[in-house]
Write a structure and sequence with these properties.
With about 260 residues, the protein is of the alpha/beta class. About 45% of the residues lie in helices and about 15% in strands. The chain has a seven-stranded parallel sheet, sandwiched between helices. Strand 5 (about 135-140), helix 5 (about 150-170) and strand 6 form a beta-alpha-beta unit. Helix 4 (about 100-130) runs parallel beside helix 5 (about 150-170). The chain is globular and about 55 Å long. The structure holds NADP nicotinamide-adenine-dinucleotide phosphate. The site of NADP nicotinamide-adenine-dinucleotide phosphate has 28 residues, from helix 1, strand 2 and helix 6.
């Protein structure tokens, strides 16, 4: 299927590795020019070069922390007119409800709620003026069903989801579609961090921790960044114009719910 977005320009945040990279690769495969971002310049440039070589698209790499105001200013200055925005950043650490103080919450809200909102605020006006735009926010399955050890993530991402629910409906008539992609367990560095959390909490080996986590997923495996990227590219496509304010769950069936 031709996604109809060849020649469009996308900003994919936090994209040198993991789910962000999966989205960047899938968009590049459709002929979309990219602005990529991550903090580590070396890995980011390596990813940018690999994507240029594989897909022949234009790739601008901006190394900075997207959760800071300075970082966002740097990315937005380099980005220019953006048709497609994929928001993403590292997730907050696991813990117990009593571990966190106000500063921890402010940090999580900044990274996983206020940063995507700031990027939408900056880029939606241009999309609306041009009459076409797509936004995909990478959130988490924890929006549908809480993950008890991820209280900071549960809180921040649910806040973003509420913002998107209303805003998506305000901009839909302008040709701009905003949706969220909710990853369940995908095989990225983040999974190693979560497995380490399980190993520590249950006093088991890393191998045992992986088995415990996989046993909760009906597919019996983690998702891949390619599968994740493919869904992201579809939500950014010409065909997704009637999909508004949705929360698309990619979790191998782990969330045990009928709808
Ligand atoms: P990952 O494999 O660790 O990759 C994270 C990417 O984001 C890297 O490129 C990293 O590069 C970049 N990054 C992190 N913090 C950044 C920042 N402040 N500014 C700019 N770039 C930043 O993580 P992932 O698994 O793809 O996860 C992506 C998001 O999805 C996270 O919020 C995670 O919590 C959420 N999520 C993931 C899963 C999963 O199973 N993988 C499940 C649910 C939710 P640098 O470190 O160089 O900056």
């Amino acid at each position: 299927m031709d996604l109809g977005i060849r020649g469009r320009r996308a900003l994919v945040c936090a994209s040198s590795k993991g789910l962000g990279r999966g989205c960047a690769e899938a968009l590049a495969a459709e002929g979309v020019d990219l602005v990529l971002n991550a903090r580590g310049a070396e890995a980011l440039e390596a990813t940018a070069e690999a994507i240029r070589a594989a897909h022949g698209v234009e790739v601008t790499a901006v190394a900075c922390d997207i959760t800071t105001e300075e970082g966002r200013a740097k990315v937005l200055a380099a980005a220019g007119d953006i048709d497609i925005l994929v928001t993403n950043a590292g997730g907050p650490p696991p813990g117990l409800w009593s571990d966190w103080d106000r500063d921890d919450f402010i940090k999580a809200l900044d990274a996983n709620m206020l940063t995507p909102i700031a990027l939408m605020t900056a880029l939606l006006p241009g999309m609306i003026d041009r009459g076409w735009g797509r936004v995909v926010n990478i959130t988490s399955q924890s929006v549908k069903a809480p993950i008890p050890a991820l209280g900071l993530s549960n809180a921040a991402r649910t806040g973003l989801t509420g913002f998107v629910a209303g805003t998506a409906r305000q901009v839909a008539a302008k040709g701009v579609n905003i949706n969220n992609l909710l990853p369940g367990s995908h095989d990225t560095d983040r999974v190693i961090a979560l497995e380490t959390g399980v190993a520590k909490a249950q006093n088991v080996s890393m191998e045992e921790a992986r088995k415990i986590r996989l046993s909760a997923i009906p597919t019996g495996r983690y998702g891949t960044i390619e599968e994740f990227g493919a869904m992201c590219a579809f939500l950014c496509s010409e065909h997704a114009g009637f999909i508004v304010g949705q929360n698309v769950l990619l979790d191998g069936g782990q969330t045990n719910a009928t709808i």
